[in-house]
């Protein structure tokens, strides 16, 4: 599993940082930061949920 | 099969009229289920002016529309589905709020505000929100029941929170709450609506001028400071932004607080489960947001190019209402959608805060406020119960944001 995020699309909803704080954070501008590009397998469900719920569709997960 | 509004043959039956009323506070308007099943993208006539607009009702289609850069939020464009009557000359003078802007203007203003509402910032506000809630619950308990929960708790808590965040003196709350409630009312005349906006803008204009000269530790001052280098907004834009934050920041949350408490009181087993296990609260809040979807038609758009939605071609210039209340009752995403289930595992997929670039910027703040209020009531007022017959309650059927006018409770 590899996680990438498109910061140009990000609208700073912070859902990812709330749903999966080990993998996502927001920088001082409030835009998405990927903390772990290759998260542990047990985080797969929350990472996929974060990607699905992102209102700007700025998170991509490649399994 | 594809069809477009102007290519439709003249129909014998008149178009259904929008908005449609909820028959019960806990359910979507009756027509929505049929539309999702039979004609998920269909035409309606707007009650305010009889003009046609597309209603989009399925979860997937609502997400598609709200995520599509070929739709605009600009209420000045012909075809935009207005829900208030705004005379042409008034419309020409309206300064766009962020929620009616398109990129790149929208992106520039939103990015100035995002840092105010990050998960981290909202978390930092938690202790102060808890303090505000406790003070109001203390006062409620000291006074003794019955009390109207709307005036005792649901309205003052979000109002105080947004005032402190923005740097608006709370002493003035009675005034702006009245203006803001007026702005949410579908039935106001254009003159009354205009007067409410004007009164609030005059108030905020003075406040913004004050902060330009004497900045404080608040959102408006930080916005002004950043704007000195970014040059995103002029003075009127800042006033308009402040109005949006103030009105959006308390009216919606206040309505959700009261409706959520009512829903829990009407579902005592689920309320008891929440009291026993507060860890269920975050999911319960998503479910309450889903069930009520209080800003159903806040997601009005107009197509700026031909787009295909659910097999229907929506032409450039046609208005669209991407109905989040309909989407939030889509059986294919939320099984048995009419049932409140605080443990519903897909609750978080709701679109009650909208979707796409305009998704509510204060969503996480609202969540924390709801969690604090519900959690505190469950803990501190275990005997809470309605002090009126449910049939006597009056609901905001004609307002842009759904709610209950009064909620008499005792304990």
UniProtKB/TrEMBL annotation, chain A:
Ferredoxins are iron-sulfur proteins that transfer electrons in a wide variety of metabolic reactions. GO terms for molecular function: 3 iron, 4 sulfur cluster binding; electron transfer activity; iron ion binding. Residues 1-29 form the 4Fe-4S ferredoxin-type domain. PROSITE patterns: 4FE4S_FER_2 (PS51379). SUPFAM superfamilies: 4Fe-4S ferredoxins. Its cofactor is [3Fe-4S] cluster. It comes from Streptomyces argyrophylli. This is Ferredoxin. The keyword Iron applies. The lineage of its organism: Bacteria, Bacillati, Actinomycetota, Actinomycetes, Kitasatosporales. InterPro entries: 3Fe4S_ferredoxin (IPR001080), 4Fe4S_Fe-S-bd (IPR017896), Fe-S_cluster_ET (IPR051269). Keywords: 3Fe-4S, Electron transport, Iron, Iron-sulfur, Metal-binding, Transport. The keyword Iron applies.
From TrEMBL, chain B:
Keywords: Heme, Iron, Metal-binding, Monooxygenase, Oxidoreductase. It comes from the Bacteria. Transmembrane segments: none annotated. Residues 1-22 are annotated as: Disordered. One of its GO terms (molecular function) is oxidoreductase activity, acting on paired donors, with incorporation or reduction of molecular oxygen. The keyword Cytoplasm does not apply. InterPro entries: Cyt_P450, Cyt_P450_B, Cyt_P450_CS, Cyt_P450_sf. SUPFAM superfamilies: Cytochrome P450. Belongs to the cytochrome P450 family. This is Cytochrome P450. It comes from Streptomyces argyrophylli.
